[in-house]
Each structure stands twice: as C-alpha cells, then as structure tokens.
Amino acid sequence: xxxxxxxxxxxxxxxxxxxxxxxxxDVVFADEKRVERDEDVLEEARAIRAKGAxxxxxxxxxxxxxxxxxIRLLKQExxxxxxxxxxxxxxxxEKIRKLADAGLDELRFHIPPGLWRRAxxxxxxxxxxxxxxxxxxxxxxxxxxxxRRADLLRxxxxxxxxxxxxxxxxxLEFSDANYARMRRQGYENKHELSHGVQGSDDAALExxxxxxxxxxxxxxxxxxxxxxxxxxxxxxxENIARPWDVVTExxxxxxxxxxxxxxxxxxxxxxxxxxxxxxxxxxxxxxxRLEVAPWILEAVAPRLGRAAFIVEEYPxxxxxxxxxxPLP
Length: 328
Ligand code: SF4
Known about the structure:
Blueprint lengths: L1 E5 L22 E2 L2 E2 L3 H10 L4 E6 L6 H15 L4 E6 L4 H10 L3 E4 L13 H11 L3 E8 L4 H14 L4 E5 L7 H6 L15 H9 L7 E4 L1 H20 L5 E2 L5 E7 L3 H10 L8 E4 L4 E4 L1 H7 L8 E5 L7 E6 L2
Parallel strand pairs: 1-4, 4-5, 5-6, 6-7, 7-8, 8-9
Antiparallel strand pairs: 1-2, 2-3, 10-11, 11-13, 11-14, 12-13, 14-15
Helix pairs in contact: 2-3, 3-4
The chain binds iron/sulfur cluster.
C-alpha cells in the first residue's frame, strides 16, 4: 500500500512527480483513497491484502508524529511483520529517533542531487549511521538523472563505503505535474508511449555495471505500471468485486449501469418483469446508480425504455472509469 501522509515538503525538485491535487497540501491518501480517519487506512490495507506500506509524500518527516502514528496503527492491526518503509529528504536526528521508536523497518534517503558528490560528511551520513544504529535498514532512493551519471557513481561509492543496504534508481519520469518544468530543462520522452525520459536506460546500464557489491536496482516506469500497480489493482478487484461484477485480466471491473432517479422502481421491474436475480444487481446510492450483471443488462436493456450502459472502471477508491458503452 502506498501511504501518502502529507503533500507538505520543504523542497522544490524540478522532477517532482506529485500531482497538483496533493503537492504542498496537507492531505492523506491510502493508495487512491482519501483518508479522513484511521479506519480508511486499515480498510484500504485489507482491500489490497497489503503486506506492507511505502510511506511517502511530500516529506513524511514534515508530519513525523502522524507518520509514527500510522506505523504503530498498521503494526498493531496487522502484526509486527507488516513491513514499513519511507522516503525522505530529511536528515533530522530527533525525527529519526521517533521513527525508530514507532518501529519503522526501512528508511530510504532521497539525497538531493547537489549532494551526490558530497554525501561524505553531509547530514545524511550522520543520519544514516544513527538510523542503522537504531536497527532501521537504510538505503538510498533517488531519481536517475541521465546527465548526472558520474555523480550517481560517486554516490554509489559512498553508499557502499557506508555499508548501506541498497540503492534504488528510479527512472526519471514525466507526470502531468512536472511536464512543463522538465521540458524547460531539456528532457524529452523516451518514445511516444512512455513517460520515461530519454537517456535514462543508457545511463542505467552504465551505472548497473558498477563493480561494487552494494545491490543497485533500476525501477522503470514500465515496471511500476505493468507489475506493481497492476498487481495491486488485481488484488483489490478480487477483494471488492460484487457478485454482478466481471473482473478483467487487467483487474478492472465491468458492470451494467443505469443512472438517475426512480432506481428502486427499476430494480423491482427488473426482478418481477424480467426475472433478474436480486443477488445479481445492487444500488449504489452515493453514485445514484443501479448496477446489474453486464451480461443480464445487455439482454434486457432494449426492453427497459431508459438509458443503460456497460461500464469498465478501476477497482480503486476513486473508481476511475475507463470505458462506457451505451446499450441499445
Ligand atoms: S523532496 Fe520529494 S516530494 Fe519534495 S519536492 Fe522533491 S520530489 Fe517532490
């Protein structure tokens, strides 16, 4: 589960991918679900059968007490083996002590590019030593800026000499939020079907040839979408699908939908006049719609005399609709 604990952050990275809806706003999301109370976090974790949480932002250490609260909450609910890791640019020793007290398992420092050549002696060196001394696994997670490959190699050497557990390199990616900024910096798309930046893969191959022993991972946007996101979405679909939903290979849900007023009467008509089993349809009151098994609605729609659709949507909390087909 991705737990976005705040959009607040004291940095202004040109490549920051966080959406305008969240950036510099003190909001909390568990995956796509807006969090208003603790139960929202627990519900989302159950819905995707989460085994751990990646805590992100903004900077989670800008709200360190809230972050610690969620670490404790998740471990109390799902047990000490529920893995928690977080990403931060903050190297404040007091905050790191709080995280260790709360039981954080793993800390990933996002060291600013300006310090990649000068990590030795920087606050990150002291912070990573402190965190490791307190029993937290420490690694680095930084964006792969293709034009800074030499500096990244220096950072790798430092991470290895410090005995850090790993270095994760994220493919530099365009997002809606950073597109204009990144273009002004001269970055180009890898190709028209990719969010990745040109030059990332070549730079990654060069860096992955680094002869040291520290594990180095290159995480591409394609991997994140095709594997991480898809796997999470499929698990959520399997958990939340209603008896009338069809779960697709991609993990989206397909359902028949009738919207508007008088839906109770439509439901009665479907049951009594058309013989639709009551367990293959249901009202979604907040969205003012009646959902029906799609194969049934396709068969009865021509006799209903009102608009009906086959809808395909994500099983995520925001139920993003990807396709809508009107029925004749
Ligand atoms: S530290 Fe992270 S959240 Fe903050 S501006 Fe940089 S990329 Fe965005």
